């Protein structure tokens, strides 16, 4: 595990078949910089009251032991409260397996199926209609059409439950999609539980995304990245997919009017603002124009980088969106609505954020920077 604040090398030491190499070299610890625990547990009122009564009763008995000890016991009892409520909040487990990369669970609750990696929520899907129930941020992966209205082939790095892959298969029947997923178990789960079907227009490659690009000779109209790794501490970006060297590699595999779309977990001000700022600054060091699409219902921001140096104003983008919808090139019902989330100005943290490289990761400084 790299020491926070020290240089981190990825490319030269990366061995895709060595799990220890992946964990020790390529990934930043979850709660250090790129991480996020997603789970939100709910507790029934009656159960909460009963457990709370028990907590207060136990506190009264041990008050003589001192405030510090009391607070420790109260904390442990509150943890027990959360654990006791967790099974009901998570829903019915329909699949569970530990792979080389994750503890994977598929859970059903109130008509929604959820894919979980080590306790984090990666994908949601309606059991009634697989094209519904997904996380809102995945709809911003359709925004590349605004800069490249004639897309015919797309690369997606990261599969999860395949929300974006299913959408592209449904809405863009002539677009060829290559998907790269490092975990073969995730690929199998997506097929068995999330209606993912390989076809003439969708191929899944079990590989590391960076290794795949380095070996590939193809050029793409768009490259979409939604690759997160999760463990018991939360979800975090694979470091070797977030550096200037990686974005340069992606740029080499894009056509002249190509677009890269990147999912970042963070906010403009406050929580993980420096994470968003660093990814923005790093992407901007390679791509001349960068746009941001913050989700309304989660702390996700999809960043768009274009090879074109021309900055497209909002008015023109809305014209393009109307044209794409009118010509039925894009038929997703919320396409024009999602465009209203666009932000053209850089996030505030970008000015103080470093460009991430394979050899330089000033993690301590980023964590200690006030929002």
Question: What is this structure's SSE topology?
Answer:
Blueprint: H1 19-26, H2 45-61, H3 67-90, E1 92-98, E2 103-109, E3 112-117, E4 120-126, E5 153-157, H4 163-171, E6 176-181, H5 184-193, E7 202-206, H6 209-215, E8 220-225, E9 229-231, E10 234-236, H7 244-252, E11 254-265, H8 273-284, E12 289-294, E13 300-306, H9 314-326, H10 335-339, H11 363-367
How many E-type strands?
Answer: 13
Please bin the fraction of helical residues: 25-40%
Give start-end ranges of low-pLDDT stretches: 1-89, 363-371
Number of helices: 11
Radius of gyration: 22 Å
| Biggest beta-sheet profile | 7 strands, mixed
CATH topology of the largest domain: Rossmann fold
Which second-level CATH architecture of the largest domain applies?
A: 3-Layer(aba) Sandwich
The helix/strand series, from N terminus to C terminus, equals HHHEEEEEHEHEHEEEHEHEEHHH
Structural class: alpha/beta
User: In percent, how much strand structure appears in the residues?
Assistant: 15-25%
Write the CATH homologous superfamily of the largest domain: Vaccinia Virus protein VP39
Can you walk me through this structure?
The chain is of the alpha/beta class and about 375 residues long. The model is unreliable at about 1-90 and about 365-370 (pLDDT under 50). A seven-stranded mixed β-sheet has the order 7-6-5-8-11-13-12, with helices on both faces. A four-stranded antiparallel β-sheet has the order 1-2-3-4, sandwiched between helices. The chain has a two-stranded antiparallel sheet with strand order 9-10. It folds into three domains: about 45-90; about 90-125, no CATH class; about 135-365, 3-Layer(aba) Sandwich (Rossmann fold). About 30% of the residues lie in helices and about 20% in strands. It has helices at about 20-25, 45-60, 65-90, 165-170, 185-195, 210-215, 245-250, 275-285, 315-325, 335-340, 365, and strands at about 90-100, 105-110, 110-115, 120-125, 155, 175-180, 200-205, 220-225, 230, 235, 255-265, 290-295, 300-305. Strand 12 and strand 13 (about 300-305) form a beta hairpin. Helix 2 (about 45-60) packs antiparallel against helix 3. The chain is globular, with a radius of gyration of 22 Å.
